[in-house]
Design goal:
With about 130 residues, the protein is mainly alpha-helical. The chain has one helix and no strands. It has one helix spanning about 1-120. The longest helix has about 120 residues, at about 1-120. About 0% of the residues are buried. The model has no long low-confidence stretch (mean pLDDT about 85).
């Protein structure tokens, strides 16, 4: 009988110990789930902050590129306008020179023709 008591006592102690461990593990598992939830929330918040910072940096870079492009476009337009003015001025000067040369060549040709006609008529040269 003593042996049966011992066995019974061992079984009760083992069962109590097993149930106690099960409850302790259940508490740990519950806490683990809570910890995992908090970690997930923290990670989501960190990701949100990183996304916000990246968007801000991207917006800043986009504005910077926009302003540089606008400035370069203005400079190119100014240079084109200056070159057009220079070309227009050069064309005007060339046209005046051409007109002047044409006028003097026409005068010289008319004078030579007049002298040639006078020479054929036997008149003396007049200058």
């Amino acid at each position: 009988m003593r042996r049966m008591e011992w066995t019974r006592l061992s079984m009760v102690a083992g069962l109590a110990l097993g149930l106690g461990m099960g409850l302790a593990n259940a508490q740990d598992a519950k806490q683990d789930v809570k910890d995992a939830g908090h970690a997930t929330k923290d990670a989501a918040v960190d990701t949100g902050h990183a996304t916000k910072a990246a968007a801000k940096d991207t917006a800043h870079a986009t504005k910077k590129v926009y302003h540089k492009t606008a400035h370069a476009t203005d400079r190119a337009a100014d240079k084109t306008a200056d070159a057009t003015k220079d070309a227009g001025h050069d064309t005007k000067v060339a046209a005046k020179k051409t007109a002047h040369k044409t006028k003097s060549v026409a005068k010289a040709t008319a004078h030579r023709s007049e002298n040639a006609g006078d020479a054929m008529a036997g008149k003396p040269e007049q200058h």
